[in-house]
Each structure stands twice: as C-alpha cells, then as structure tokens.
Amino acid sequence: MLVKENDIILFQGDSITDAGRTDAENPAEDMGVGYVAMIANALKKRMPQYDLTVVNRGINGHRVRDLRARWQADCIDVKPNILTVFIGINDTWRRYDGGNITTIEEFKRDYSYILSGAKQAGVRDIILMSPFILPFPNEHKAWREDLDPKIMAVRELALEFGCKYIDLDGMFAEAYVENPEGYYAADGIHPSAEGAKLIMNKWLSVAL
Length: 208
Fold this sequence. Notes:
The chain has one domain: 3-Layer(aba) Sandwich (Rossmann fold), CATH 3.40.50.1110. 49% of the residues lie in helices and 11% in strands. It contains 9 helices and 5 strands. α7 links the parallel β4 and β5 (164-166). The longest helix has 22 residues, at 140-161. The mean pLDDT is 97.
C-alpha cells in the first residue's frame, strides 16, 4: 500500500483534475467536484485515523509546459509524499483548435523536468495517469495521431522514473464499448460523474 499515516497526497493536472476548483472562493483549499474530491472522500471514510491531507492543484487548460512553469510553488513547496500527475490532453487539443503544437520532444522534456524535480525533492511515490480521449465527436479519431505518442511517452517515463502507471486511455476505451457516446465523458474528454468514479476506483486500487 502506498498511502501511509499523515501523508500529503498531491494531484496535478488540467481541467479534469481541476473539476471546478479554480472557480471556487478558495481554490487553494478546494477539491473541485471530480475524481480528486471522490478520492479524498473515499480515503476519509476508509482510513480516518490516517490524518491524510489531499491537495488539488489541477488548473483548467494547462499543458505539461504549464506544470513546469509552476512546479516549484505547486509541487515542491507543497512537499507531497504521494504525487499523481494527469496531464497531456491539452498538449494535443491546442494543435487542433489553434495550431499550437507541442512536439513529442517538448512533451518529454518538460515531463522529465517535473519528474526529476519531484524525485530530487524527495517525493516518495509518484503515480502517472495517461491522457485519454473517446472516439466522439468523430473528429477525435484524427487526434490519435498526436495523442498516442504522448501516451507512450508517459508510459516510458513511468518506467524510467520508477513511477506507478495507470492506463486511463485503455480503461476508458474498454468502458466505452459497454456504454458508448457520452456516458463516461459528455464531450469525449471531460469525465462525467461515472467517468470520475472509474478514475477514483482505479487510483484507489493502485494506492491502497
């Protein structure tokens, strides 16, 4: 089990992690309404005696380069024992909605930077979750050309840095066969409540 008493558990990422946090009155203390809040509630119920601190630092629209820019304040200074990183879909999305390309070399470089920093700062356990996309609307199918190499890069970085790895892309692809279209993500990207539960359950299976 990764989780230990008095742990600080940090979640980092984009809007999927943010889940409304930055719209709250006190975003630094808010869990949002997505998978992070679900995990925090589950941990509190299952192990209240552990006195855990769950921190959400996901920010809507962010790419891996944005994590790098705020890594000191939003990761190193938080001093987490467990770090979860879920980033990458915006690195693909910006290519298709604005022509702003994140090359695979840039993606790997910036992701390596944040993992190196976390390791050097003494983060005990790191969990990497792959970005994912469902095949609707139909235009999303073409996005795989850009996203698939980034998913592979996250997998390779998990191996290189000794991180736990959660294949959300594979998990959602399997779930989509049973419940197609918007059941797990209304736009194919942002999880519904049911999609967030899938992420929560998978994270708990790895961390507990």
